[in-house]
Design brief:
- The protein is of the alpha+beta class and 526 residues long.
- The chain folds into two domains: 293 residues, Beta-Lactamase (2-Layer Sandwich); 143 residues, Heat Shock Protein 90 (2-Layer Sandwich), CATH 3.30.565.
- 45% of the residues lie in helices and 21% in strands.
- The strands form four sheets. Strands 1, 2, 3, 4, 5 and 6 form a six-stranded antiparallel beta sheet that branches. Strands 8-7-11-10-9 form a five-stranded antiparallel beta sheet.
- A hairpin with a 2-residue loop joins β5 and β6.
- The longest helix has 73 residues.
- It starts with 16 loop residues before the first helix and ends in a 13-residue tail after the last strand.
Length: 526
């Protein structure tokens, strides 16, 4: 029989290794740079978050200090009110020192009492005379009925210092009698600022709820209204953080935390200059760049060197691929020639003066061998064989050549078996199925043969061939050639045979290992 020419398909095109290395290396470099940028961004965000947390906690500290000053001032003003007695505030040309009434409050605080016309009557400053505060907003607010007031930043007329005033209304028998006040130097904010170590360009301030600045460090010469800042974005600001862009006070960019002073219409704020907040981020970034840039350059050089080596190896790899494909072609050709030779042997057998039954048996066995070799070279399965495809074709050929017309049901899972086990398995199936067609059903038409193959445990499979024929007594069966072959093939498969027969039919069961290479696994798409 003529040999069929088999041409192998050209090998699948693939990207050269050097180009792939450069491509993968470029992606790796981009990934490293992207990761470094992500880490830098996260470090930046963390630095900003630390700055925000520090600004908010500093604002809280300022709020606590200012609350203490307000409470101490309010208690002092109440004691002054009580020390004045029940009558009206008497006009006098001699200013009386009231330090015994106000107690021991912090250094620099100034205490004054004004009558209903805003004239100074009592003060902690000796010799202060002729001071009139009737034009001050805080005095008018108290005169109009407000109980207590915190003034914005102003220039105190007693000492010409920058300070703010905490003042309280004095009432006798329901009538307005005057004002008691405490002047607190704005320079006290410097003490708060120095204890918090926020950096040279930071600031701390206290603002009234209407936006007027009460006090600030670094100090200002006059007050200003800050109601346009994000602190007052809500009607009643409480606590929070914002980035102020360019400060309207000094043009610096800060992270500002603010905290409402409990029990007073006052907001404390602390601002950290953005450069100071990002100092640790900049140090980390510079350190990372000093290490990372040389590493990236070294990685790029390594990729280029690897690409050059791979280009040198590319030709050798192509030679190996050509040799491998040639070997595959030769293996396909060998199995194809074996198949052709077996078919020639089958043709010679059919020409021999043998009984028809013997010729069919031999032809069936040779057909099983032909089928396995054809399956191998057609599917390039040189290590393992797909059992499902192989057995379905083999059983179809047995059914077509059989004298008896019986229905065949196949339930074969898509398993793989080692190549060396495929041939004895096919020969065994040929013997058992052919025997069922010949002996199970007698002269009458009809009958059913079921063939199933399923994966079991421990890399084993179970083959079951059953029919609904007349059955037989296994111990009474003559040990003919077919029976001996079944035993021999089962031994080659290292399998265990179990035959069950009764008047309702015969069942042949074979448990066998699939082999080390194949394993009990489903084929792709199975």
């Amino acid at each position: 029989m003529a040999t069929q020419s088999v041409t192998s398909p050209p090998p699948a095109s693939r990207i050269p290794a050097a180009s792939a290395t450069i491509g993968v290396g470029t992606l790796l470099l981009c990934a490293v740079i992207g990761l470094a940028a992500l880490l830098a961004w996260r470090d930046y965000e963390a630095a900003i978050e630390r700055g925000e947390a520090r600004a908010l906690s500093s604002a809280h500290v300022v709020a606590a200090h200012f609350q203490w000053m307000l409470q101490a001032s309010d208690q002092t003003l109440r004691r002054i009110d009580a020390a004045l007695g029940p009558g009206p505030i008497q006009a006098t040309e001699n200013i009386t020192n009231i330090e015994e009434a106000i107690g021991d409050l912090p250094r620099g605080f100034q205490y004054s009492v004004y009558d209903a016309r805003g004239q100074l009557r009592l003060s902690s400053i000796s010799g202060a005379i002729g001071v009139d505060v009737s034009d001050r907003d805080y005095f008018r607010q108290l005169k109009d009925g407000q109980d207590s007031v915190v003034s914005p930043l102003l220039e105190e007329r007693l000492s010409n210092e920058r300070m703010f005033v905490v003042a309280r209304r004095i009432v006798r028998s329901g009538a307005f009698m005057g004002v008691a006040s405490i002047g607190i130097p704005a320079a006290r904010m410097a003490e708060f600022w120095s204890t918090m170590n926020l950096g040279p360009y930071s600031s701390v301030s206290v603002i009234r709820a209407d936006g007027w600045l009460i006090a600030r460090f670094p100090a200002l010469n006059s007050t200003m209204n800050l109601s346009g800042t994000p602190v007052f974005a809500s009607p009643e600001p409480q606590n929070g953080v914002y980035h102020n862009g360019v400060s309207p006070v000094d043009g610096l960019t800060r992270i500002v935390g603010f905290w409402r002073v409990e029990g007073a219409p006052v907001i404390a704020a602390a601002g950290i200059e953005v450069g100071q907040a990002l100092a640790s981020f900049r140090r980390n970034l510079i350190g990372g760049m000093l290490v990372g840039i040389p590493m990236l350059c070294l990685l790029a050089w390594g990729l280029l060197a690897t690409a050059r080596l791979q280009r040198a190896a590319e030709a050798h790899r192509r030679d190996l691929e050509r040799s491998l494909e040639r070997n595959r072609f030769l293996l396909r050709e060998i199995h194809h020639r074996i198949k052709n030779n077996l078919q020639t042997v089958a043709s010679l057998v059919r020409l021999q003066p043998l009984p028809a039954e013997a010729r069919r048996s031999i032809a069936g066995r040779i057909g099983a061998m032909v089928a396995v070799h054809e399956h191998i070279y057609r599917n390039d399965e040189f290590g393992v064989v797909s059992i499902e495809q192989y057995l379905r074709r083999l059983i179809d050929e047995i059914r077509e050549s059989a004298d008896h017309d019986a229905e065949v049901d196949m339930d074969i899972e898509p398993l793989e078996i080692d190549r060396d086990k495929a041939l004895p398995l096919g020969l065994l199936v040929n013997e058992v199925v052919s025997n069922a067609f010949k002996h199970a059903f007698g002269a009458a038409d009809g009958g059913r043969i079921g063939i199933s193959l399923a994966a079991g445990k421990d890399n084993h499979a179970r083959l079951q061939i059953s029919d609904n024929g007349r059955g037989f007594e296994p111990e009474n069966v003559t040990k003919n050639m077919g029976s001996k072959l079944v035993v021999a093939f089962a031994a080659q498969l290292e399998g265990k045979v179990d035959i069950r027969s009764s008047g309702e039919g015969t069942t042949f069961i074979l448990d066998f290992p699939l082999g080390e290479q194949a394993g009990a696994r489903y084929l792709e798409g199975g």
